From TrEMBL:
Residues 96-122 are annotated as: Disordered. This is Uncharacterized protein.
Length: 122
């Protein structure tokens, strides 16, 4: 069962990570800038958000190939928290065999970003 802390936990700027079988997840509170519909043209406002990252075992998020990661953003509210929990539940239930058959940390290498290509000199 996937656990998501109460909204107050995230409003205190705490992140939460966990795993279910081979599915890892990270919930992170934050802010984003969006156009302000009441402020007229060219004005923006900040809104509180809850970002959910989902990726497979065995590596940490930054050591996992971006093609294997999934990110969703929700409002930082009770409804957004519930939607984030539902998103993680659906992600797990949609591919249970994928999560249950992740490789062992002993059987694979962490992902590393490709090396920058050197500029050719003429």
């Amino acid at each position: 069962m996937i656990f998501v802390p109460l909204l107050h936990y995230f409003k205190c700027k705490n992140s939460y990570s966990g795993s279910e079988a081979g599915m890892r997840y990270l919930l992170t509170p934050g802010k984003r800038t969006v156009p302000d519909p009441e402020g007229g043209e060219g004005t923006e406002k900040e809104e509180d958000i809850l970002t959910v990252d989902i990726w497979p075992d065995p590596w940490a998020l930054d050591q996992t190939d971006p093609a294997l990661r999934r990110r969703e953003v929700f409002p930082l509210s009770d409804a957004g928290r519930a939607a984030a929990a539902q998103c993680m539940k659906e992600a797990f239930e949609a591919e249970p065999e994928r999560w249950k058959n992740t490789p062992s940390i002993l059987d694979c290498e962490p992902w590393a970003p490709p090396a920058p290509e050197e500029e050719k000199t003429e």
